[in-house]
Amino acid sequence: MRLSPYFIPVVLGLSLGAAAPVFTTPAQAGVVIGVGITVPIAPPPIPIYEQPPIPGPGYLWTPGYWAYEEEGGYYWVPGTWVEPPVVGVLWTPPYWGFEGGYYGFHSGYWGPTVGFYGGINYGFGYGGSGFDGGYWRGGDFQYNRSVTNIRNVNITNVYNRRVVNVRPGGAAFNGAGGVQARATQAQLAAARNARQEATAAQIRNREAAHGDPQMRAAANRGRPAVAATARPGELKGPGVVAARAAGRGADRSAAVRGDNAAARADNRAAAHDRAAGRPNAARAEANAARNERGAAARNEARAARTDNRGAVAHHTPPNREAAANRAAARHEAGANRATANRQAADARADRAQTRAQARTDHASARGQARATQGQDRAAANRQAAEARAQHAQTRSGAAEHRQAAAAQRAQHAPQQRAAHAAPRQAPQQRQAHAAPRQAPQRAAQQHAAPQRMAAPRQAPAQHAAPHVAAQRPTGGGGGQQHPAGGGNGREHH
Q: Is residue 350 located within the same domain as residue 234?
């Protein structure tokens, strides 16, 4: 690892456990110095992996990257979900840049806007420029569902906007042989504006990766077993996601092959020279060694091409050398087409992943809708059961009321029957009281009856009356005799 003025700001003398966030600005020249980490070999390509589910609202995604240490070489720092230091800031990922024959490391930082990160395709919203994974609105972060893995978490502040580069991949450095991208004025301004370095959780995540030998590129061949984790520093458990594949060209990477001996030798020589007070000599020697290695590599390549041309000339007439050149051009064109086909295949895979994510989201929405409908039905069934129970209780109360009324009627029935029977017995009682009074009358009638029956026996005396009357002297008035006791000659008994 070589230290040189590479214009990478680092905050010194600040504790990670400080409560208040600390931002660095160009005006703070007293606490910011230019420190750079430069390596003579390129980092491996970005591995291909999936994003773990977000652990909860308020977390932001920080993509994985290749870090470097002198003894072990490059090692992978897994992507993870972290809580931002303050509301309203976004993470600008670190990146490697090739300049002056060395690969320099540019640290990531938090700021109001996303700055330049070398055009590296870190995926999941960091497709090379800016961030398409979401934005701040007020105090809430709005998540883009097309690039954010939102599962098993109730997050309502979401939207859906299609993004082309969903998965990570490609070169991990900017410059010759890597990603050809230049910073815009807005991105440069973002780097100059107020910014905050990595949080304590991010540093803990990097230290955990540094302490695991399996995270080194020479051990995992560019395909780390822990490519991402749901929480910082947790390299085991259900939230760990392994890389699906190494990045394209990882098998040709010197870092993956473990060719770090030259880099370590240069670093040790530079450290020795710095200790001896000869930094310029150390730099000059390192540059000379690099130039020698580059010249040797170029000479070997030219010798190989010369041998190939000699072999072609030996077996091919001179007039067919142009045909050989055309064949080489066709071969190169075929290689370019193969590269284009692989890129198209990656694009198709990205589209397939987008469709799969859409299907997953749709299925999740359907499941939530079914669960909501089931809950509604269960609530309706409970209400209906409560209504039936209340109705049954009402009917039971009515039945009890009827039984009480029947029992009361049965209790008062004898008294009512006695009360109704009293008027019907009164005539009989009156007859019983009237019977003694009628008895003398009947007795008088019974005594009178013999007298009426004896009256005819007096008839001779009555018939003798005219005879006695005839013996009387004749009176005036018509000489008509009337029987005694009446003028119509009838007897009245």
A: no
Pairing assessment for the beta strands 60-62 and 109-111 based on DSSP bridges: unpaired
Count the Cβ atoms, other than its own, within 10 Å of residue 37: 21
Choose the final residue of a domain: 212, 247, 277: 277
With CA atoms as reference, report the closest residue to 80 among 208, 254, 267, 214.
Answer: 208
> Over the stretch 106-138, which tens digit does the pLDDT of each residue have?
999 999 999 999 999 999 999 999 999 999 998
Among the three residues 277, 311, 338, which one is the final residue of a domain in this structure?
Answer: 277
| 353 three-state secondary structure | helix
Report the chain's terminal Cα–Cα distance, integer Å: 173
Determine the Cα–Cα distance for residues 386 and 465; give it in Å rounded to an integer.
Answer: 114
Which range marks the domain in which residue 160 is found? Answer: 2-14+23-277
Residue 415 within any structural domain of the chain: no
Q: Which residues pair with 81 in a beta bridge?
A: 61
Q: Is residue 398 domain-resident?
A: no
Please answer whether residues 79 and 51 qualify as being in contact, where contact means their C-beta atoms are separated by less than 8 angstroms.
yes
- Please write the tens of the pLDDT for every residue from 360-410: 888 878 888 888 888 889 999 999 999 999 999 999 889 888 999 888 888
pTM: 0.52
Provide CB contacts within 8 A for 208, sequence distance 6+: 232, 233, 234, 235
Pick the closest to residue 208 from 76, 327, 319 (CA basis): 76
CB 262 within 8 A of CB 59: no
Spatial separation of the C-alpha atoms in residues 119 and 422, rounded to whole Å: 117
pLDDT of residue 300: 53
H helices then E strands: how many in the chain? 8, 18
| Distance, CA of 217 to CA of 221 (rounded, Å) | 5
Report yes or no: 108 and 9 within 8 Å, Cβ to Cβ: no
